[in-house]
UniProtKB/TrEMBL annotation:
It is found in: Cell membrane. InterPro entries: MFS, MFS_Cyanate_Porter, MFS_dom, MFS_trans_sf. This is CP family cyanate transporter-like MFS transporter. Pfam families: MFS_1.
């Protein structure tokens, strides 16, 4: 490996810094254990939707336990999504200050605590735990693309497939087992949800060796000084917040997150409101999550081989729109079909949105900044989805209007995504 290539590989993903010799040594030590790093990435990714997916199959029990209205119930899923955006504001600073590995480790611990707080017998704890969960997941969401760009610069698209696929697999497992766990624990929805804190604890243990290996790296980096070593002064990096392309990537991220979190919050309820049993609705919801893995793996791989990703934008938005139309026209009779179509579209969309962050970035620094922007604004936008859908459903007594609004979201995502998919760099 030539020296320039090594510098690109070892460039800290969270800041405009170049590692000192101590930092270079720590990074090489981490990359000398690729299996350990891969296990950590997969286990962390399994947690990135699990705590959110555990709520939807149990939402009716949660609502009955606390006497919540449809709008208040929607806040149970909206609050974590809202704090996905708020937490993203501080994630890059935390990564610079303490190092990616340490922040990921602490985020997993915080996630486990949030899951346990959420099942305490108080409405404030139900929402407060959601705040902790949202912040924890936001740290994982924002730092993972930068870490992949930093440590796997030549395999960014395949590695994006690995972590998005793992993320969706985690949600699938949780969705499929939440109701059976509730029954196994004596009809306790609290125990069923609390169980998944163990998954966060296992993932944190997997990151602990990486934290120990990286000790001493953060704080040894130095900013690249203009004219250092006789080199020309580097151009000041352009702010991603002033880039039209960055905003297009951000809006596509937000809109696809919005349509997905509406489904995460309300898909089983749509089925049960039309006469389906709760257990069957949970299984179909799990199938929806499972089939997302196919889209999440395949679409980033295809995107990495294409100069423009416009055909993929059209494909995923069309699939999601078709699935929503099916939920409106024949929610029970075609439940498995619509769930599968939506799943492929949802998985492909989230994989494509995350891949666009990497493909539209020229280096790891830009990838980290664009990831922070896209997920801050994107998740703040997405948080409105479950809340608005629940409020409109409560006002109209029907899912027709909320689903029609989601079709408008699909049309907007298509228009924005066609711009974001152009072969350009932020």
């Amino acid at each position: 490996m030539s020296r320039p290539e090594a510098d690109q590989l070892l460039l800290d993903a969270e800041a405009d810094v170049r590692p000192s010799p101590q930092g270079v040594a720590a990074r090489r030590a981490l990359l000398a254990h690729p299996v350990l790093l891969m296990v950590g990435i997969v286990l962390a990714s399994l947690n990135m939707r699990a705590a959110l997916a555990s709520v939807s199959p149990l939402v009716s029990e949660i609502s009955e336990s606390f006497g919540l209205s449809s709008t208040a119930t929607s806040l149970v899923t909206s609050v974590p999504v809202l704090f996905l955006g708020v937490g993203a504001l501080v994630a890059p600073w935390l990564g610079r200050r303490f190092g990616t590995e340490a922040v990921l480790f602490c985020a997993l611990l915080l996630l486990g605590v949030g899951i346990l707080v959420r099942v305490l017998p108080a409405t404030a704890a139900l929402y407060g735990g959601g705040v902790l969960i949202g912040i924890a997941i936001s740290l994982l969401n924002v730092l993972m693309p930068g870490l992949i760009k930093r440590d796997f610069p030549d395999r960014a698209a395949p590695m994006t497939s690995v972590y998005t696929g793992s993320m969706i697999a985690g949600a699938t497992i949780v969705a499929a087992t939440s109701v059976p766990l509730e029954k196994a624990f004596g009809d306790s929805w609290e125990a069923s949800m609390a169980f998944w804190s163990l998954l966060a604890a296992v993932a944190a243990l997997a990151w602990l060796p990486q934290v120990l290996i990286a000790r001493g790296r953060t704080g040894h980096e130095t900013r690249v000084a203009p004219g250092a070593s006789g080199s020309a002064a580097p151009a000041a990096p352009r702010s991603v917040w002033r880039s039209g392309l960055a905003w297009q990537v951000t809006l596509f991220m937000g809109l696809q997150s919005l349509w997905s979190y509406v489904l995460i919050a309300w898909m089983p309820t749509i089925f049960t409101d039309h006469g389906m049993s709760r257990s069957t609705a949970g299984v179909i919801f799990a199938f929806n999550n499972l089939i997302q893995v196919a889209g999440a793996f395949a679409v980033p791989l295809l995107a990495g081989r294409m100069r423009s990703q416009r055909p993929l934008i059209a494909l995923v938005t069309s699939l999601v729109a078709t699935g929503y139309v099916g939920l409106m026209a024949a929610p029970v009779a075609g439940a498995w079909l619509w769930s599968g179509i939506l799943g492929i579209g949802q998985g492909g969309a989230v994989g494509l949105a995350l891949t666009l962050i990497v493909l539209r970035s020229g280096d790891a620094v830009t990838a980290a900044r664009l990831s922070g922007m896209a997920q801050t604004i994107g998740y703040l936008l997405a948080a409105a989805g479950p809340l608005a859908a629940g409020a409109v459903y409560q006002m109209t007594g029907s899912w027709t209007v909320p689903i029609a609004l989601m079709l408008g979201v699909c049309a907007t995502a298509l228009a924005v995504g066609l711009f974001a998919a152009r072969d350009r760099k932020v």
